[in-house]
Amino acid sequence: MSSWHVGPRAAFDLETTGRDPMSARIVTATIVLVDGDGDVLEHHEWLADPGVEIPDGAAAIHGVTTEHARTHGLAAAHVVHGIAAVLARLFGDGVPVLAYNARYDFTVLEQEGRRHGVAIPRPSPVIDPYVMDKQADRYRRGKRTLTALCEHYGIGFENAHTSAADVLATLQVGRILADRYAFLQRPAADLHASLVVWADRQAASFEEYLRRTEPDAVIERAWPVIGAPDRPAGPTTAPDAPAGTSTGTTAG
Fold this sequence. Notes:
Elements: E1 9-16, E2 26-34, E3 40-49, H1 56-62, H2 66-72, E4 74-75, H3 76-92, E5 97-98, H4 102-116, E6 126-127, H5 129-136, H6 146-152, H7 163-180, H8 188-210
Parallel strand pairs: 1-5, 3-4, 5-6
Antiparallel strand pairs: 1-2, 2-3
C-alpha cells in the first residue's frame, strides 16, 4: 500500500479562547483537503461567536476580538456542527487529517461537541507532525512550535496563528517529514497507530524529566483526544453540515 503522504490528505486547525483544551472555545477553524500533489481540492473556514469573552491575550495571537466574533461569527453550535460534518466525511473516506499538536485541537472539538450536543466523529486516521518531528529528531534542541519547525525545515510561514495559515504550514511540514524519514512512509492507519504509541512514550519521558524537580508532575498521555469516549472502531458519522457553516470551499 502507498504512503499517506502521496495521496489525498487534509489538515485541520483551530484558533480558540485559551490554552486549556478542556475549557477553550472555538473562535476560528479551517479544514483544507489537498490531492496527492498538494493542490487544494476543498477549503472550509468558520468564524464562531464562542459565547464567551475572548481574552485579550488570545485575541492578540489570532486577531479576533470579542466584538468582531459577536458581530460576524456564526453561533458556536452551528460551527461545531459544520466542522464535525466535514471531518466525518473525510474520516469516513479514509482520508488522513493532519493536525499540529493534534491532542489540543481534537480535544477542544470534543469538548465543544459535548457542550452543544453535536456528535463528533472518531478522529482516525490522524497525522501529527509535532509528534512525528519529536520521534524523528528527538535530541534536537530548541522549540517545537509550528513556527519553529517551519524555520527549521525552510518553509515560508506568514500569518502564523491564523487557522488558515497554520493548516497550510502543517501540510508542508508533514510532507517534508515523510520525504525525509523513511519510517514515516506508510499507510495512514498504520502511522496513526504508531503515533498513539509515540505520543504516550514522549509524554512519559517528559514527565520523568519534570519529576526530577517536580515530583507530582503529570503529563497527559492520551492522543489524539484527551478523555475520549469509548467508541467502536471506525469513524462516527455526523449529520450533514447546515448551510453556511463553511466559506471559500472549492472543488477541483
